[in-house]
Amino acid sequence: MDMMEKLEILTESAKYDVACTSSGSQRSGQAGSLGNAVSFGICHSFAADGRCISLLKVLMTNGCIYDCAYCINRKSNPVRRAAFTPQEIADITMQFYRRNYIEGLFLSSGIMRSPDYTTEQLIAALELLRNEYHFRGYIHVKAIPGADDALLSRLGMLADRMSVNIELPSQDSLRKLAPDKSKQSILQPMGLITNKITENSTELVKYKHAPRFAPAGQSTQMIVGATPDTDYQILNLTEGLYKKYKLKRIFYSAYTPVVEDSLLPSLDTKPPLLREHRLYQADWLLRFYGFEARELLDEAAPNFNPLLDPKCSWAINHREQFPVEVNRASYEMLLRVPGIGVRSAQRIIKARRAGTLDFHALKKLGVVLKRAQFFITCKGRPLEGLKVGEHTLLRSLMSGQELAKFQQPEIEQLSFFDDSYLAALPEAGRAASFRYGG
Amino acid sequence: MFATTSLAYSYDGSFEGLLCCVFESYQWKETPLAIHSEGSGQGLLLEAKWIETDKMKADRVLRSIPLKISREAEDLLRLGFWSAVPDKEMLLLNFLYLGFTHGPAVMNMLADDTVCALNKAVRLLRREGHHYLGFVRFTVYGPVMAAVIEPQGYVLPVIEDHFCDRFQSESFMIYDRTHRMALIHQPGRRAIIPLEEWIPPQPDETEAAYRSLWQSFYHAIGIKQRRNDRQRASMMPKRYWKHLPEMTGKQADRPVRTARKQQTPRRPRELQ
Q1: Where is the composition biased (Basic residues) (chain B) (predicted)?
Q2: A259 touches chain B (CB under 8 A)
Q3: In chain A, residues 196-235 whose CB comes closer than 8 Å to chain B
């Protein structure tokens, strides 16, 4: 089998892994070696699906001894199998990197023989890259659940980021769809990596040149839409992982059917892209906007409304906290206004040191007033001529353009005023009584 | 700031030259109607005053900026000068008027027309520079490598440090075809020099082999069920495609249908 064919097979098998970020590590170049790493990460291309290509994302092999129902590489799926040698991986990474095609390598693998043996193969490839080829670029490696602790520790010393995929958001789903994996076998290596990173950070305080363990931290991924888990469950799990395991990122992958299975949604199911998008929005609210999972969803309303983004939903349900005065509100409160993001909030804070802001000034700062206008005042006054009626409010908050992006052309147009969705909106009728305080 | 005269300044197009225009304006307490760089062929209707570039004058202006305004203002000024915004000279002059009047506070005056426009221009330049960190594609010719870019702004100085650090042991060139400048690096040495014309030689067999490997990787990594041409074009604007082997190769896929008008919705900031 020639290189081209192998690369195609092993890329096809790896593409359902979402993570392709190269951020979190800062390492300068060195004479005699190739590469560096920059903390903000760099995208080198964008695939036809619009996702960033930053790393050479391949599997070592797509042969696997496990039989997880959702996975394209499951033992019982008759796909073509291939395997790279460590030498081949190292060679192609170096050649691509030199041409500036990629930011580094994302290496994962099906399980060959045993988790330990697989991990040894991964280590062999990374050692070749780091020690023989003196590669200083970014490396993301998958930790194989069930591998020996000592092996995982060695792997972490060679990589920038490690990840263990949690795959499914609940133990039930896991038991059903991935019978060879258990919650325990996934959380155990995750915990080990977290501990190693913490340990390493204290060592680094003592010895400046102590070798670094996964300096870009740990991430994970879960599949959305293959099982009946609710957004509320997923978001709670997310919050727990960020807090307890100090993960850097959690990725959501809209379930794309690749194999037929009675336990799974049928093969013609469309990936729930809008739901995935809402989860990412909520994920950002947790990480950068100071929100907590229980503020966004609860048992009574366990799923996100497809028509409203999570922040708008929250704001409509908490009208007593609005409007806020742009010239006095704290950074934290500004962040909670729909339409004001991290950059806008920072610019507002900076600009109001130079003078009071009015709506005209906000536009100049790049604050999108379409949504924000209903929740703010400038110098104590709302936007002139602003009408707050039931329809204007909701229509402005529901972003048609945004929804359009998640509709495939062949799907019939989603009607804005489909009754079932409107009924789910938080008390739309009360919008008329939405008043501005002095 | 000063009374506007019906004059246009013209200068040699260098950063020092522009600083001399600032000097001239303060010396005669006059605000020109426009500033043109030599050869831009504009302003035929206005009486033009030629501003000679004088290193002493330029230095005086340059030294006063960190003293009277701030170091950040100096950076902003340089980046603004490299940006591709039309009439950048007047914008920079107006920014300096403001800066010399208000001092360091000018950096916070984001709602001011001039400061806002300058920041926007610089943001565009920075974004383009950041794009090129990823979108530069080297072709390897034996021991040396070369890339061609066609940026709108003058990004070479913005991306210089990054590439020289990353490829410390390599000899490479990045040729900016728009501005006819080239960044040349050899281990331990680097320079940005003017280069009128450079036509890349045909890649050899090894190079062609890695290009087609990259192309097949590119096509294998996309998920068909999630195809989204609009998203791709907004994250990787089409003007970059010309120099990306994965977008120009024999099997490069064209969009299924050309997107309706260029009114691509911006990806929500949350996902960037």
Answers
A1: 257-266
A2: no
A3: none
Q: Do A47 and B232 touch (CB under 8 A)?
A: yes
Q: How far apart are CA A74 and CA A76, in angstroms?
A: 6
Please report the DSSP string for B163-190 in residue order. HHHHTTT-EEEEEETTTTEEEEEETTEE
- Interatomic CA distance for residues A176 and A318, integer angstroms: 39
> Does residue A36 belong to the interface with chain B, where contact is any CB pair within 8 Å?
yes
Interface pTM (ipTM) of the complex? 0.88
Q: Which of B226, B251, B269 best tests the A interface by mutation, with the highest count of A CBs <10 A?
A: B226
The secondary element (H helix, E strand) that includes residue A394 is: helix A390-397
Rounded Cα–Cα distance for residues B132 and B139 (Å):
15
Cα A211 from Cα A158, distance rounded (Å) = 9
d(CA B246, CA B212) in angstroms, rounded, equals 8
Domain parsing of chain A, residue ranges: 3-216, 310-433
Query: Does any CB of chain B come closer than 8 Å to the CB of residue A364?
Result: yes
Quote the minimal CA–CA distance from B117 to chain A in Å: 9
Read off the pLDDT of residues A43-80 as tens digits, 9 standing for 90 and up: 999 999 999 999 999 999 999 998 888 888 888 888 89
